[in-house]
C-alpha cells in the first residue's frame, strides 16, 4: 500500500516514490462498484515529474510542496496530484518518470498568512509563494459548482456561491459581550425595515416583527457573516465553523470514558497565538490549512465534475495531549430553519430523526454518528459525512456540533477503571454537502425515518472507500507493462451497493469451491432533493439488476437466493439471473461464475 507507520500508534505516512529516467508504475484500485473520477495524490522525489497513462499518453498534473509544519517544506519531497478515471471495482495504472513537461506539469501557488508572528517560511523556486504578515480580509476559493469563503483571521469556513453578496447582522448591543437584541440583516451604513428577535453568542437569528435600524449606528453592532450561493441558483446559504471546548463538572461525578457530564455550554476555543494560514491554489484542487495550537484543519475544494467536486473535503488533525478534563468540538452554523430536529444514521443503514429537548440535560441531546448527520428545512439540507464514528448534536436551530476528541483525567465508575489519558494525534475526515429541495417537494413531517439523497449516498461511500494507490517496487530487469483491469461489464444501478463477493469453501476440501457468495444492498433515498448538473452518470432501475451481464467475460451458471448467513436456501436454483430488491433490503445469493 501507499502508507507506512513508524510504530503501531503513529499516523500513517505516504511512501515517497523515487523518480528515475525509467518509468515507475503505480497501480490504483477503486473499491467501489461505481466508476469514479478522483484526484489521486502521490509523493515523489522531484518536482520535475511526468505522468503517463497506461497507454503512454501524457497527463496533466498539479505539483505542490509537501509541508511538515505551517511554514516548513519537506526537502526533496513533493506532491503530485492527477485526476484519474477508474473502472468499477477495477485497477488503473499510472507511469511516473523523471522529466519536465511545462504544458502539463502545473505548479500550485501558495499564500501564507502569519498574522504578526515572527516565523520563517521556507521557499522553493518551483512554487510561487507569497507571505502576508497581517492579512485580515476574507478570501475565497471556487470551482464550477460553488464559491467558498474563509475568514482571513481564523481561516475557518464561510461559504457562498459565485455572485453571492455579504450581509451584515445588525444587533443592539447588550451589557455582556456576545449578547444583544437581533435587529436583522442590513447592508453596512444603510437603513431598512428589519426583523427582530433575541440574539446570543450561541443562537441563530430568526425573523420577527419589523423594526427600523441602521447597521453601525451608535448602540448597535455588526456581525459579518457570509453566505453560500451555488452557481446555478439565486438562493444564498450561510455556513461557517468554529471550535469549542467543553469542561467537566466540579462535583464528585465527572466526565469519563462512558459519561459525558459537561459543566455547561461549550466555550469558544481560544488559542495562545493567532493561527497561521496556508492557502494553496491549483487547477485540480485548492485548500486552506489553518494551524492552531491543538488542531490543524484542512478544507479542500476539488475542481472536478462529479461527486468530489460537489462537496467540501474537511479534515482535522487534533492533538489535545496537554488538556486536562477538556473536550474539543467543531460547530457548524447555518441559517437553515431546522426547528430543533436533526438526523443521524444507525450504523450506516438507516437515518432517524432526533429532537432537541431543552428539558433534558445537555449531554442527553448527543447521539452517535457512525456515517452521517444532517439538518434540513423546506428549501435546503446540509449533511456532514464522516469517516469515523463520533458524537453529534444540534443544540440550536441551524447548527450541527460534533465532538472531535476528549481528554479526561478520572474514571467514571462504569468499569474501565481509568480515565482517558492515552490521547494520540488523531485525524478526523469529513465531507460537507449542501443540497436543495426540488420545487413542490415537501419535507416529510412526523415520520420515524428519513433518507439521504442518492448524491449523499455516493458521497458517503466515496469518503469511506477512497481510491487506493499501490506503488510498484523497483525491479531489475523491469516488469513488463502493467495493464488495467475491468471486472464489471457495466456499473450496477447507483442505488445498489455491493457488500461482499467472495468464493465459498468446499465442504470436503481445503480448497475453495466453484461457487461464490454475493451480498447486495439496495439503498433507500429521498427523491425530493435536486439531482441536476451532478457531472456524472448515475441511473437507477427500479430495483432490478441483471447479474448475467454484470461481470466482464463471465457467465452466471446458476443463482440461488439464501438467508443472509448463507445457511438456508430460500428458493431453488434458477437459470434466470435477473433479481429484484425492495429499497432498504439486503439480500444474499449463491452463484457460480464461469
UniProtKB/TrEMBL annotation:
One Pfam family of this chain: Glyco_hydro_38C
Highest taxon of the lineage: Eukaryota
InterPro entries: Gal_mutarotase_sf_dom, Glyco_hydro_38_C, Glyco_hydro_b, Glycosyl_Hydrlase_38
Domain Glycosyl hydrolase family 38 C-terminal per the UniProt entry, residue ranges: 228-414
Segments forming a coiled coil: none
GO BP: any one term: N-glycan processing
GO cellular component, one term: Golgi membrane
Single Gene Ontology MF annotation: carbohydrate binding
Protein name per UniProt: Mannosidase alpha class 2A member 2
Species name: Rhinolophus ferrumequinum (Greater horseshoe bat)
